[in-house]
Design goal:
The chain contains 14 helices and 13 strands. α1 packs across α14 and α6 crosses α9. Keywords: Transferase.
């Protein structure tokens, strides 16, 4: 097979969840030398981490803003490069395409809840484009892939799809996320990001689902009760956003306990997880929750949510908490900080849990979907041709 893979954001310097999933999937697919993979990306500055393999061709495809790129430049390139099937990896796809399409629909948060359309201008624009594109494209794709059983059921129920057309393929954890005991490396990352010897780690950003305000309210409650025993390191959250939230919740007294370290590149994250005492991931909604596994693979105890996909990913290897309850979040964090034996138990269970998710399995399952999608498309084409003969 000659497979086209849409990975338009793969070269941007600040990669996030869907970009990491696309990158690791492409790396794993490179092991299948009997197939050719053409990866279509928008030109940008970051080429680190990309696979170098004779069966992987990277095509930097200009074409203006993302909707224009996807709807016009991408279908033309599919024809030009002789693609048998196009896999769109980030929730949307071209409405017209000359080959079968497989869509990875990570989540349908953008269809569920108007309040979650708040966030940055980029996030709001992206959600509006998805709201326009997904209902139109979903019936045109041979298969829809999503990343958890929870999300699969949400997609089937909300979009009224035939369950046979929607496939769960779990994400996984990369090999770089592992136990690291190199004292020099750990000391360097502490110095670079101003990390204390012990700290609570939280991957925050402006997306409302990350529950930044709820987390800060829980930390403020602990602070007011004299129970916040460690500083809190928050990545990827602008200082202006932090100041605004602290003002809204009357939490300026918390400012001295928080260290903002900016964006942390994915290749540096394993060191930060290893340095952390506890990892917080009490999101309001996730389609998978990749950081949960990443922290576990680094031996970091995790607190995550009882909602959406997070219990499915975490199993019994994390403390689960209602993310809408400030008191519950504060109580569980206090408990984990006070009980070394509980942290040791979660560390052991987390390391075991992370081994259940591999990119090799993801790639193998994807190839099955590709082959099945081409077969289905060919069957439909033959049926349509026969029908037109009568």
């Amino acid at each position: 097979m000659r497979i086209g893979i849409e990975a338009q954001r793969l070269l941007r310097p600040h990669r996030h969840g869907m970009d990491i999933v696309a990158l690791e999937t492409i790396r794993a697919l490179a092991d299948y030398s009997q197939h050719e993979f053409v990866v279509f990306v928008k030109p940008d500055s970051a080429h680190f981490g990309l696979p170098s393999s004779p069966n992987i061709e990277l095509v930097e495809l200009p074409g203006g803003p993302y909707p224009v790129w996807e709807q016009y430049a991408l279908p033309r390139a599919v024809k030009q490069y002789g693609i048998d099937l196009l896999h769109c990896t980030a929730n949307t796809a071209p409405l017209r395409c000359s080959v079968p399409r497989v869509l990875t629909l990570h989540d349908i948060i953008f269809l569920e809840n108007q309040p979650l359309l708040r966030g940055s201008l980029y996030q709001r624009f992206g959600n509006q484009y998805r709201r326009w594109n997904v209902p139109r494209i979903i019936t045109e794709c041979e298969r829809v892939i999503t990343v958890s059983h929870f999300e699969r059921q949400r997609i089937i129920d909300h979009l009224k799809l035939d369950p046979a057309r929607v496939v769960t393929i779990w994400n996984a954890v990369s090999d770089q996320f592992r136990l690291i005991d190199d004292a020099e490396q750990l000391a360097n990352v502490r110095s670079q990001y101003n990390l204390p010897q012990e700290f609570i780690f939280f991957l925050g950003n402006t997306d409302p689902k990350k529950n930044v305000q709820g987390v800060l309210k829980a930390l403020l409650l602990l602070k007011q009760e004299g129970k916040l025993s460690l500083p809190v390191v928050i990545s990827n959250l602008p200082a202006a956003s932090l100041d605004s939230i602290l003002t809204d919740i009357g939490g300026q007294q918390l400012a001295g306990d928080i260290i903002l370290c900016g964006y942390i590149p994915n290749h540096v994250l394993p060191l930060v997880y290893n340095a952390a005492t506890v990892f917080l991931c009490p999101s309001l909604r996730e389609s998978f929750g990749l950081p949960i596994l990443e922290a576990m693979a680094c031996g970091t105890p995790v607190i995550t949510s009882t909602t959406s996909s997070m219990p499915e990913v975490a199993g019994d290897a994390a403390l689960l908490v209602d993310p809408s309850s400030v008191e519950a979040m504060a109580s569980q964090l206090d408990r984990l900080l006070k009980e070394p034996s509980l942290r040791d138990e979660l560390r052991r269970k987390g390391l075991e849990r992370a081994t259940l998710f591999s990119w090799a399995a993801t790639a193998s399952n994807l190839l099955d979907v590709y082959a099945d999608s081409i077969k289905v498309n060919q069957t439909i084409s033959i049926s349509n041709t026969q029908s037109s003969d009568y």
